Amino acid sequence: MSALPSLYVSHGSPMTALQPGLTGIRLAELAATLPRPKAIVIASAHWLARSPHVGSAVRPATIHDFYGFPRELHALNYPASGAPGLAARVASLLDTAGLQPELDPSRGFDHGVWVPLRLLYPQADIPVVPVSIQPEAGPAHALAMGRALAPLREEGVLVIGSGSITHNLGDFRAGYSEAREAPYVRPFTDWIEQRLAAGDVDALLDYRHQAPFAERAHPTDEHLLPLFVALGAAGASAQARRIDAGIDLGFLAMDIYRFDTATGASSAQPPMG
To answer: Which residue numbers delimit the Extradiol ring-cleavage dioxygenase class III enzyme subunit B domain (predicted)?
Structure first.
């Protein structure tokens, strides 16, 4: 099997599970183009820890980590199995990279995991290992996590970062809608797309200072950090392809990115930039 790509998915609101819209269409289309993975490792913006934690449960529970949503949403489950052996492999790779991981045998699937996976692989028949992110450690740390996990792609494992390409929940009450988009969304997402296309990792790591409206698009880092995990997992010669999945509620950009290693390049190459 040739190496799988790595993915960054914008999971949006938990309501995406009930109202998948264009995001559901795009994720289903994407899954149809990929070789079937043996397993999935997914870093979610909704599992935060000071060091990388790796879920090693045999039967991870579905976590309904939200409130104020319809009862039907709380009734949804994603009954994929865990993969303790793969979790140990993930922890070993992170440990070799000096990232001090910990195994967590009780962690289930938060909505950053199960909402997009229901749309990618609705049969829930592929083992899943969740991984935490470290919001205080910043983009360079997330990139290092992804680069540590890069060998998994050649072992038939799909590495996914799950967040949102813009994420400012304070704008829920700002009156934005499909007819009135937040003015910062497209300049920010265009900048991300351009820097990824250029392979400008240094600028991306410094996005808070260089990207237009960065503080408005991401008051905190956690929903963009999984992008760096996915980017790192594709290796130093990552080629990015943006998949437009629209803008929900006028301020949640739902971009999806597929990262492939450039032909002839190795995921083990030294860091770029």
So the answer is: 19-237
In total, how many domains does the chain have?
1
In the block, tokens 């740390």 appear at 141
- Cα 20 to Cα 31: distance, rounded to the nearest angstrom: 15
Q: Model confidence over 164-184: pLDDT tens digits?
A: 999 999 888 888 888 899 999
CATH number for the domain spanning 11: value is 3.40.830.10
The tally of CA atoms less than 13 A away on the side-chain side of residue 178 is 3
* 207, amino acid identity: Y
pTM: 0.94
8 Å CB contact between 133 and 222:
yes
Query: Is 130 within the bounds of a domain?
Result: yes
Q: How far apart are CA 21 and CA 28, in angstroms?
A: 11
- Asked if the structure places residue 271 within a domain, the reply is no
Whole-angstrom distance, CA of residue 179 vs CA of residue 196: 28
What angle (nearest 5°) sits at the alpha carbon of residue 44, between those of residues 246 and 192?
45
Which stretch of DSSP H or E encloses residue 240?
strand 238-243
Q: Which domain holds residue 128?
A: 6-261
Single out the residue of 161, 197, 176, 157 nearest to residue 248, CA to CA: 176
Q: What value, to the nearest 5°, has the Cα angle with vertex 60 and ends 16 and 166? A: 30
Tokens representing residue 123 in the block? 């049969």
Structural domain contains residue 266: no
Per-residue pLDDT of 37-63, as tens digits, reads 999 999 999 999 999 999 999 999 999
C-alpha–C-alpha distance, residues 10 and 185, integer Å: 14
Residue 14 lies in a domain: yes
